[in-house]
Amino acid sequence: MKAIVYHGPGNIEWEDKPRPVILEDTDVIVRITKTTICGTDLHILKGDVPEVTDGRILGHEGVGIVEESGKAVRKFKPGDHVLISCITSCGSCAYCRKGMYSHCESGGWMLGHLIDGTQAEYVRIPYADYSLYHIPQGLEEEALVMLSDILPTGFECGVLNGEIKPGDNVVIVGVGPVGLAALLTAQFYSPGMLIAIDMDENRLEIARKFGADYSIHLKETNPIEVVKGLTQGRGADVVIEAVGVPESFELCQSLIAPGGIIANIGVHGKPVTLHMEKLWSHNIKITTRLVDTVTIPLLLKTVQSGKLTPEKLITHHFKLYEGITAYQVFKHASAEKALKVILSAES
């Protein structure tokens, strides 16, 4: 089969790889129909994730058709149309029983990380009964690819950890794909005001189209003054950090109101400064989380009902064999006005 293969920092190739086979009775083999590229894949390509070794097939998101199932698989059979979770869950360890699938003792983030991933014609899915979801008839595949990772990440790590309530003033710092996912799902809870902050005017325009009441361009306006002005000097009830750099986390601390919650989504590769000298008396809560994908069933229902239309996040389409080009487009997202790309395996 063909796949997108990592060969060290800055080097990926479209090449032949052996078709995966069942290794454990709980495995299935899925024929990929559609997949995508994640910001985490770019981190891998930069060499930021040393656990990813030379020869690894990338990708941890996608939909497809079950081709073969292990003897112990109960919920899935060949021919089933499935959504692949970015997180592998055994379903029985102490963390899985708490719904913390990302910390599964024999799973977690494996695809495209510790084992071969989804940017290929076929992929092996361990613990299939707890790591796949049936796709209801009539739902658009491209929309559902967004439910593998990005929508649950924005929802779980940003919206749910932020405990958004009706009437809350919510600021999202960084409206790339994951920030926009938080923006879309925050609207489930009828916030009083949604404010988007970024330095990319195209993304701010999209945020406004997706439901942001106000947008703030970092290079043109003082975001602290604007947010304070919009909130009668109090600040935001919830601030969602969706960038992952020290400057954005520092900004979040300046925007939060007393009693508020800072919900971190961003992947931080450097230390940040925690201003306890200011926050200690302000009843602030700071939350962190890895996506567990426990909300995929709920999100599937919202897509099925038409309440959520995640295909709005997709800006570019490629064939799977055009994956190297797709990586270049996604890498230069600002210049290309790219959010999410779809890689389609159909010939």
Write a structural description.
By secondary structure, the protein is an alpha/beta fold. The chain folds into two domains: 2-149 and 292-344, Medium-chain alcohol dehydrogenases, catalytic domain (Quinone Oxidoreductase, Chain A, domain 1), CATH 3.90.180; 152-287, 3-Layer(aba) Sandwich (Rossmann fold), CATH 3.40.50. The chain is built from 13 helices and 15 strands. The strands form three sheets. Strands 3, 4, 5, 6, 7, 14 and 15 form a seven-stranded mixed beta sheet that branches. Strands 10-9-8-11-12-13 form a six-stranded parallel beta sheet, with helices on both faces. Strand 9, helix 7 and strand 10 (214-217) form a beta-alpha-beta unit. Helix 5 crosses helix 6 (177-186). The longest helix is centred in the middle third of the chain and has 11 residues, at 150-160. It is globular, with a radius of gyration of 20 Å. The relative contact order is 0.15.
Strand runs, count: 15
Averaged pLDDT = 96
CATH class of the largest domain: Alpha Beta
CATH fold call of the largest domain: Quinone Oxidoreductase, Chain A, domain 1
Order of helices and strands: EEEHEEHEHEHHEHEHEHEHEHEHEHHE
Please tally the helical runs, counting DSSP H or I stretches of 4 or more residues: 13
Q: Under the CATH scheme, which architecture of the largest domain would be assigned?
A: Alpha-Beta Complex
For the sheet with most strands, the description reads:
7 strands, mixed
| DSSP strand content | 15-25%
Instruction: Work out the helicity level.
Output: 25-40%
CATH superfamily of the largest domain: Medium-chain alcohol dehydrogenases, catalytic domain
Rg computed from alpha carbons, rounded to a whole number of angstroms: 20 Å
Q: How would you classify the helix and strand content by structural class?
A: alpha/beta
Number of domains: 2
Shape: globular
Return residue spans where pLDDT drops below 50 for at least 5 consecutive residues: none
The first-to-last residue Cα distance is: 13 Å
